[in-house]
Every structure is written in C-alpha cells, then in structure tokens.
Amino acid sequence: MLMLKVLKTFTTAAQFQCKRALCASGAMSHSKYEYVRQYESDDKLLPNCWIVIRIDGKAFHKFSDVHQFQKPNDKPALDLMNRCAERVLDQFRDVLLAYGQSDEYSFVFRKDTVLYNRRASKLMTNIVSQFGSSYVFYWKDFFPEKQLKFPPVFDARAVLYPTNLTLRDYLSWRQVDCHINNLYNTTFWNLVLKGGLTNQQAQEKLKGTFAADKNEILFSQFGINYNNERDQFKKGTTIYRERVEVPMENGQIKIRSKITATHCDIIGDGFWEDHTYLLDPYKDA
Ligand code: GTP
Ligand code: MG
Predict the structure, then answer these.
(1) Distance from the CA of 253 to the center of ligand 2, in angstroms?
(2) Rg, the chain, Cα only
(3) Among 64, 142, 229, which residue has the most ligand 1 atoms within 8 Å of its CB, making it the best to mutate?
(4) Using an 8 Å Cβ cutoff, are 205 and 191 in contact?
(5) What is the pLDDT of residues 21-55, one digit of tens each?
(6) Percentage, residues of the chain above pLDDT 90
(7) How far apart are CA 19 and CA 10, in angstroms?
(8) Phi and psi dihedrals of 4, rounded to 5?
(9) Whether the CB of 189 sits within 6 Å of ligand 1
(10) Rounded to the nearest 5 degrees, what angle is found at the Cα of 116, between the Cα atoms of 114 and 118?
(11) How much distance in Å is there from the Cα of 33 to the middle of ligand 1?
(12) Quick check: CB of 193 below 6 Å from ligand 1?
C-alpha cells in the first residue's frame, strides 16, 4: 500500500522511469492474477545426489534414413553428437562428465550443483535446448555436402543417483547398451549389406545368438575381427573435464581444466582411478 501511494505521486517522465523500475524489481507485483503462480509445481531435485540429464534423439531411425547415415555407424553423425556435448560442457560448468552413444547423451552434474536451484525442468530444458540448437548450428561442419532436411528433436529426462556406485552403474549400463547394440547392428548390417540377406532373414539368423556367435559370423563370413572396430563405435564417447598442469612464467604450476573426449572403457576401475578428481570429492559417507 505504501508503495502504491509513493508511485501515485510520480508524474514526470523521470518519475515514470522510476515506477517501471520498481515494477520490474517485483516491488509492484500486486496484480489480481498473481495467485496463478501457486499452480507451478516445485520440481527441485533432491540434494546430495548426482543429477543425470539424458537426452535422446526423437525418431532417429527416420532421421538417420532421411539423411542417409551410414549403417550401423555414421562417423560424422557421431562426431556431431560429440561436438554438441562439448558445447554443453563448455556452457554449463557444473557438468563434470558426459557419456554418449548412438542418438543419446547423458550429462552428469556435480553432486552439489545449485544451478537453477536444482529445478529439474530448468536443467533439462536448458541442456536439451543447448544440445538441439548446437546440432543444427554445427551440422554444416560435419556434413558440408548434406543439407539438413528437417529440424531434429531431442527429449530429455532427469534421473538422480544417490551414491558414486549407483552413478557408475548407470554409466556402465549405458556403455554395456552401446556394446550390445553395436555388436548386434554390426553383424546385422554386414549380413544385409554384404551377405545379401533381407532384414527379416538377418533378424532370424541372429535370434538367440550370443556375443561369441556374432563375433564368429563377423570373422568367418566377412573377415571382420570385431575387436578391431573403432573404439568410438564399440564404447561410445566420454567427455570430461581433464585436469592439466600448466607451467607459469614464475615457475609455478597452475591447474586448469580442459574438456577432453575419450572412447575408453568406463565400466572397469581404470578410468576412475586415473581420474580420481572426478568422483572422489563426493565419496560416499
Ligand atoms: P525414439 O528415441 O523412441 O524416438 O526412437 P528412435 O528412432 O530415436 O530410436 P532409439 O533412440 O531407440 O535408437 C536410435 C536410432 O537412431 C537407432 O536405432 C538407429 O536407427 C539410429 N541411429 C543412431 N546412430 C546411427 C548411426 O550412426 N547410423 C545410422 N544409420 N543410424 C543411427
Ligand atoms: Mg532416439
């Protein structure tokens, strides 16, 4: 009330500017419609948990066909996904690691992030929007000869992991998924594209087979040693903030972080032992 009285006395242009500023500052939020704010749900994510935002291409089986991506792996397409993920890490400093394969990427936020007050919708939409616009923005760098035929769409979800173990199991799950799908797809598309089988015949042939059987088909029929396939295809891509030591002019060493991509195994302990600074500060009690 006091604020309204003060504002009513403002009449000059300068005073009008002052009134606008007061409104913008929230001091004047007295509209009768204000109550609708209460309908917004609070989606603040639990504290002290790892936040993973996973984005996934919508109907990318169609997107890949229309853009004639190589089967089963199109290197430029996967490199473009990696470029977009690097952009996300570059723009969101609280993302300490990302893992991607096929048309999906998982972004791991620091356990103690307070970005957007940990609101799920803000985190998801900002990440997925940054990723999607980057995909379009960088397209021509990876496909200079190919026109983008329609705008790609990505969905996003937020998942919480309470411990370092559950976070690592999550990342292992995604990498195992990459391995299983890639072995299947590599065998399937060799049977179709080189072996002359129809999609249905290849599907039938692979029904009930184990990894060893697929390795054998690849080797005996197509001379392919699956182990020699690109790590990027077999293991996906992990992007993280690497700690690098930078020597300074005064002889001292400065620690800087550098966004680095690797296609290594993240299921075993090796990667985590080599990069203890990623998870160790958040060791489970
Ligand atoms: P939704 O995610 O449910 O909307 O469906 P989706 O069609 O995107 O399927 P999903 O995310 O389960 O799988 C990703 C699909 O993208 C694969 O099945 C492939 O069809 C396609 N894809 C991803 N990467 C490549 C690639 O490098 N080459 C080709 N040819 N296709 C790819
Ligand atoms: Mg998809």
Answers:
(1) 44
(2) 25
(3) 64
(4) yes
(5) 554 555 555 799 999 999 999 999 999 999 999 99
(6) 87
(7) 8
(8) -60, -40
(9) no
(10) 55
(11) 45
(12) no
